[in-house]
Write a structure and sequence with these properties.
seven-stranded antiparallel sheet, 20% strand, four-stranded antiparallel sheet, alpha+beta, Jelly Rolls, 10 helices
């Protein structure tokens, strides 16, 4: 039995420091050759293969005959908590690990599925393009630092968890959200974000501000404002940056750091994606 936040990790050689935030744990790992062992996790965990194809032996508890699978890069294995699987493989294998604590599951899923978290079974060598894109977003988010980076991980982690249970859970599709935030809630959350553009925000803070669960908040926010909370936050940060860039006494790096970007390059990349130009060119065109 192991979890991704344990120190040291049994059987696992860490090649990148895991990030743990609000019940979401992500990290890059390397696993040595394994001739065969029972593996169980204390959290719902995903292992996403990152290397060359290899053969994996897989036998969940209660299954008589082991399965053999050729695993390719991007495929993932799913380990529900406290369900043991016998696995074996040859060669050192690189994985990207994602784990969700029970508190993260409950915050994200309980209301979405009518008060009950669906059951999941252990799964091996799964391909899913949407889940793959969300995992890629988590990996990219690990490389960023600053107040907004943890908000980004929290947001993508919740979307990934919902997609896992929508796709593979036993309870079908979640209850749809009807309507948006309403004028009062929308005003409160917009004012809350506007006053904290350079601070560390997470979905829990925003949802609590308007008295909603994270699940309902994400969907109601999109209905009302036409975008996700994370994209809205970035657009507002860039809008504020455009105002600050009109002051020639402020350096571009200073502006980026003030608004929660981890570096000059991170600020420039986000600015370009949203405006189509760089901060320096924006300033040059207006001063």
């Amino acid at each position: 039995m192991f979890d991704f936040s344990s120190k040291p990790l049994p059987l696992w050689v860490r090649i990148g420091k895991p990030i743990a935030h609000q019940g979401l744990i992500v990290g890059e790992f390397e696993v040595p050759t394994n001739a065969g062992t029972w593996v169980g996790t204390s959290h719902l965990s995903m292992a996403v293969h990152r290397g060359e194809p290899f053969e994996l032996g897989w036998k969940p508890h209660g299954v008589l005959e082991p399965q053999r699978h050729v695993v390719n890069a991007g495929q993932f294995h799913l380990f529900p908590p406290d369900q043991f699987v016998h696995v074996d493989w040859t060669g050192n294998q690189r994985i990207f690990g994602v784990a969700f604590t029970q508190s993260f599951l409950e915050r994200t899923l309980v209301e979405a599925f009518g008060g009950r978290i669906p059951d999941l079974k252990p799964m091996v060598a799964v391909d899913n393009p949407v889940i793959g894109k969300l995992v890629d977003c988590l990996r990219q988010g690990m490389d960023e630092t600053g107040p907004a980076s943890l908000f980004y991980l929290d947001h993508i982690g919740a979307m990934l968890l919902l997609k896992l249970y929508e796709t593979f859970g036993d309870a079908g599709q979640p209850t749809p959200v009807i309507g948006g935030l309403g004028s009062s809630r929308q005003r409160r959350v917009v004012e809350y974000i506007e006053a904290r553009l350079g601070e560390e925000l997470n979905l829990g803070h925003l949802a609590a501000e308007v008295g909603l669960t994270r699940y309902h908040f994400i969907r109601a926010f999109r209905v009302s404002l036409g975008t996700s909370p994370f994209r809205y936050l970035n657009k507002r940060r860039i809008a504020r940056a455009q105002q600050l860039l009109l002051d020639p006494h402020l350096s571009i790096t200073e502006i980026g750091l003030t608004l929660g970007f981890s570096s000059h390059s991170h600020f420039t990349e986000t600015f370009r994606k949203i405006t189509g130009t760089t901060p320096s060119q924006f300033r040059k065109d207006r001063l």
